[in-house]
């Protein structure tokens, strides 16, 4: 096989055409379709055509939140690195990842909980002043803490992207969020990850409808 | 389903046990097995049991390179964020990602090529003084430029992790690397990504054999 020269700006367009074609006519209302396609684009994994679950209108709520200057709080530096911060800034938003902050490390040790748990509490503080999208790509305990903060009335998130990946407590933690009356986008099951959490944020930012 | 309380340090152990069990007795010589398991752990995608291709002894060459202070050059900030930099530093290595550097942006514009192309040239400069592992999680053009630099005798990489993900030129660029006499670890086909490139680096760092 030979490498075909494709202009960088055309690669994404062509990729999306290939994905659309291989979806064999399956389609979703926008901006869901953009989100589904971008998850497949970032993973080359067509399981994301089947596993993404959106609470009622979550995708539009997310797009509007970003346009209204929502901040994004994430549990991983990889997701923070993957989210388009310049684009988010155009709308007035910022990305926060507290996972390696000294005070987070210290508090997690003292309380015997995960650092992700503390990060969510710091995110809930930000949510007092701004709409906040929580983009979780790693830690089930982040989703557990978010559910607690919602139940106690301490947090009203704009949207939760619940995309931890893995084999222990991942499925269950996603169900905790989906059982709550909160806007969510969740890849049901074991799959997800920082790349998926970031790409869902970017898909909502790039959506032009 | 209920959340079972699992100590953070036990989650990885339990995850690896689940992965091993679901591999139904399939096994690989170490440290290949560790790399396969960690790719599955990071993606929850068992395709990595089938698509990872190692050139002869590449996994041991990679482990030794890291222990000898190899630097890692990557094409994405997400992979750079995901690689355990503290652990690498213990061996004397550093992670480099030049993709957003001003001189890279400028040179790519002037020459009409991708920024990843320029990044590989900067990586080849580092390889004059240090062993270098190239961990590519996004850009097929990075692998194309590495192949050219190898062919012209300008670069002898310690190892290439060739894990771009996607639909345009990805498969072909991986084949370019596998056609060369160079140590490589490649997820054959469309799959890969920054998370996979980073996790292969970490698996080699964490390997204790």
Write the SSE topology.
Two copies of one chain form a homodimer.
Chain A: H1 8-22, H2 32-43, H3 48-51, E1 52-54, H4 58-67, E2 71-74, H5 77-82, H6 85-90, E3 95-96, H7 102-111, H8 115-126, E4 132-136, H9 140-151, E5 159-162, H10 170-178, E6 184-187, H11 194-206
Parallel strand pairs in A: 2-3, 2-4, 4-5, 5-6
Antiparallel strand pairs in A: 1-6
Give a concise summary.
Two copies of one chain form a homodimer. By secondary structure, chain A is of the alpha/beta class.
Task: State the order of secondary-structure elements of chain A, H for helix, E for strand.
Answer: HHHEHEHHEHHEHEHEH
Given helix and strand content, the structural type of chain A is alpha/beta
In terms of quaternary structure, what is this? homodimer
Strand content of chain A: 5-15%
Shape of chain A: globular
In order across it, which strands form the biggest sheet of chain A? Answer: 1-6-5-4-2-3
* Mean pLDDT across residues of chain A: 96
Number of DSSP helical runs of chain A: 11
Q: How does the major sheet of chain A shape up? A: 6 strands, mixed
Tell me the distance between the termini of chain A. 38 Å
Portion of residues in helices of chain A?
Answer: 40-55%
Largest interface: A-B, 45 and 45 residues
Low-pLDDT runs of 5+ residues of chain A are none
Give the strand tally of chain A.
6
Q: Any idea what the radius of gyration of chain A is?
A: 17 Å
């Amino acid at each position: 096989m030979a490498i075909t020269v494709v202009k960088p700006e055309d690669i994404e367009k062509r990729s999306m055409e290939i994905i659309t074609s291989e979806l064999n006519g399956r389609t979703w209302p926008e901006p869901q379709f953009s989100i589904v396609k971008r998850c497949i684009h970032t993973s080359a994994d067509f399981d994301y055509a089947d596993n993404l679950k959106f609470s009622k209108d979550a995708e539009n709520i997310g797009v509007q939140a970003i346009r209204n200057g929502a901040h994004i709080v994430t549990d991983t530096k990889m997701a923070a690195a993957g989210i388009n911060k310049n684009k988010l800034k155009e709308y007035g938003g910022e990305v926060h990842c507290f996972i390696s902050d000294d005070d987070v490390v210290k508090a997690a040790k003292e309380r015997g909980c995960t650092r992700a748990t503390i990060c969510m509490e710091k995110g809930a503080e930000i949510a007092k002043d701004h709409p906040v999208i929580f983009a979780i790509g790693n830690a089930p305990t982040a989703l557990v803490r978010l559910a607690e903060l919602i139940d106690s009335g301490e947090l009203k998130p704009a949207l939760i992207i619940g995309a931890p990946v893995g084999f222990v407590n991942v499925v269950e933690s996603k169900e905790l969020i989906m059982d709550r009356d909160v806007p969510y986008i969740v890849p049901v099951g074991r799959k997800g990850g920082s790349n998926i959490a970031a790409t869902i944020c970017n898909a909502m930012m790039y959506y032009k409808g």
